[in-house]
């Protein structure tokens, strides 16, 4: 039999809070983390807004020497992982290290390092490129360095599935515990790509909002006037643990993880499938894996990017998967407040889904002022809502047609 898996620790580093309590309180208050870019001079860019992490002090988590040898996405992951471990009250030692693993994804990895070291190469020559360039840049280093910093010696890997990376990482970690390959997993996503190259690329695609005059209202999922996503950054890491281990040590349990599904659109490099088939199959797979009836799903934490195509096609997918029940469940997108954290989005949104169940509270979709008639579900517009919740699913979809969905429920000792 598959083992039951529960969530016992949370760690969040976001544009609206550098730890979980602040993040959650700002989220349900509808506070925006969007503003003008400070990381570089964006004067000549069509998009000059982003959702940056503010006042992050890496020296709280790693020493000065290591800061110089790690990209920001890795520093974010280490911070979130250490927060999650502390929240779970887990000490890693020689007796348990081999049963505790790490699975943290990143969609892009160390792009800031790549850009800076390319400049060094062009301006000063190959001998001046840092010997730490490669390990600073590669995406698996979030999981690798979290393992080194925490002592976790169990399964260690990372998913790279664009904006589904965090959700896939949590799903794969869930399976490792279910099947007995680990007892505890630190899992989620991390990203920090607010850089000139990233903005040039996404701007050339036409993917970013150009509402530069009103940054806080630029991310508007499911709104008729949405014009693109706002890039965010940060990290979300959760502690998954076998129920038997959690109960044996008297752990606080936030929720139970019960399902994971994924699929491929097999359609287009960047556009989701217009019939919603791939996203619907991902949701159906997660619900089936969880052993739920479709009518038992209460809340969907949507991918909800604020792009014209994603929001419409995700709505179509939800209707395709849930039929009439689509109009009875709640859907919301926190990207309206934190922007799109790319590979970190799934980690932060998993935390949101878990806390929605734990606090029986639906986070809002802010800036939903002009409803799109083709997006006609209950998106919890503009204000949080108290609700009686039993289950929640969280969607993440990535370039290349990657779809991933994870499912949680209120924990019951049965």
From TrEMBL:
SUPFAM superfamilies attached to this UniProt entry: Thiolase-like (SSF53901)
Signal sequence range: none
Enzyme Commission number(s) from the entry: 2.3.1.179
Domain of life: Bacteria
InterPro entries from the UniProt entry: 3-oxoacyl-ACP_synth-2, Beta-ketoacyl_synthase, Ketoacyl_synth_C, Ketoacyl_synth_N, PKS_Beta-ketoAc_synthase_dom, Thiolase-like
PROSITE patterns xrefs: KS3_2 (PS52004)
GO BP terms: fatty acid biosynthetic process
Pathway membership: Lipid metabolism; fatty acid biosynthesis
Active site positions: 163
Domain Ketosynthase family 3 (KS3): 2-410
Example of a GO cellular component annotation carried by this entry: cytosol
Known catalytic reactions: a fatty acyl-[ACP] + malonyl-[ACP] + H(+) = a 3-oxoacyl-[ACP] + holo-[ACP] + CO2; (9Z)-hexadecenoyl-[ACP] + malonyl-[ACP] + H(+) = 3-oxo-(11Z)-octadecenoyl-[ACP] + holo-[ACP] + CO2
Keyword Lipid metabolism listed: yes
A molecular function GO annotation: 3-oxoacyl-[acyl-carrier-protein] synthase activity
Described function: Involved in the type II fatty acid elongation cycle. Catalyzes the elongation of a wide range of acyl-ACP by the addition of two carbons from malonyl-ACP to an acyl acceptor. Can efficiently catalyze the conversion of palmitoleoyl-ACP (cis-hexadec-9-enoyl-ACP) to cis-vaccenoyl-ACP (cis-octadec-11-enoyl-ACP), an essential step in the thermal regulation of fatty acid composition.
Family as reported in the entry's similarity comment: Belongs to the thiolase-like superfamily. Beta-ketoacyl-ACP synthases family.
The protein's name in its UniProt record: 3-oxoacyl-[acyl-carrier-protein] synthase 2
Organism annotation: Baia soyae
Lineage: Bacteria, Bacillati, Bacillota, Bacilli, Bacillales
């Amino acid at each position: 039999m598959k083992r039951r898996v529960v969530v016992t620790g949370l760690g969040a580093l976001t544009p609206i809070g550098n730890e979980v309590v602040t993040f959650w309180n700002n989220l349900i208050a509808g506070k925006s983390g969007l503003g003008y870019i400070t990381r570089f001079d964006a004067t000549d860019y069509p998009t000059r807004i982003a959702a940056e992490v503010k006042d992050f002090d890496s020296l709280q988590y790693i020493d000065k020497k290591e800061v110089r040898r790690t990209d920001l996405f890795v520093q974010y992951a280490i911070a979130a992982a250490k927060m999650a471990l502390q929240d779970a009250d887990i000490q890693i030692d020689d007796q348990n290290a081999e049963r505790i693993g790490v699975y943290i994804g990143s969609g892009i990895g160390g792009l800031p390092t790549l850009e800076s070291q390319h400049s060094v190469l062009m301006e000063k020559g190959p001998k001046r490129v840092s010997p730490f360039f490669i390990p600073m840049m590669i995406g698996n280093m979030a999981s690798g360095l979290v393992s080194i910093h925490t002592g976790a010696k169990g399964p260690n890997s990372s998913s790279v599935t664009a904006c589904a990376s965090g959700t896939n990482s949590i799903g794969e970690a869930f399976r490792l515990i279910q099947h007995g390959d680990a007892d505890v997993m630190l899992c989620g996503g991390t990203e920090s790509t607010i850089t000139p190259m990233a903005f040039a690329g996404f701007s050339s695609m036409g993917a970013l909002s150009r509402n530069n005059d009103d940054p806080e209202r630029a991310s508007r999922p499911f709104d008729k006037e949405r014009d693109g996503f706002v890039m965010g950054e940060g990290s979300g890491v959760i502690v998954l643990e076998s129920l038997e281990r959690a109960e044996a040590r008297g752990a606080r349990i936030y929720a139970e993880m019960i399902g994971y599904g994924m699929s491929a659109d097999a359609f287009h490099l960047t556009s989701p499938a217009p019939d919603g088939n791939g996203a619907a199959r991902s949701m159906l797979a997660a619900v089936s894996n969880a052993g739920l009836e479709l009518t038992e799903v209460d809340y969907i934490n949507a991918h909800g990017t604020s792009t014209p195509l994603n929001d419409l096609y995700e709505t179509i997918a939800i209707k395709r998967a849930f039929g009439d029940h689509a109009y009875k469940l709640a859907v919301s997108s926190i990207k309206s407040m934190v922007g799109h954290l790319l590979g970190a989005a799934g980690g932060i949104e998993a935390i949101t889904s878990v806390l929605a169940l734990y606090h029986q509270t639906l986070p809002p979709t802010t800036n939903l002022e002009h409803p799109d008639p083709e997006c006609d579900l209950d998106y919890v517009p503009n204000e949080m809502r108290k609700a009686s919740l039993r289950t929640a699913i969280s969607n993440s979809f990535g370039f290349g047609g990657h779809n991933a969905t994870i499912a949680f429920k209120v924990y019951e000792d049965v």
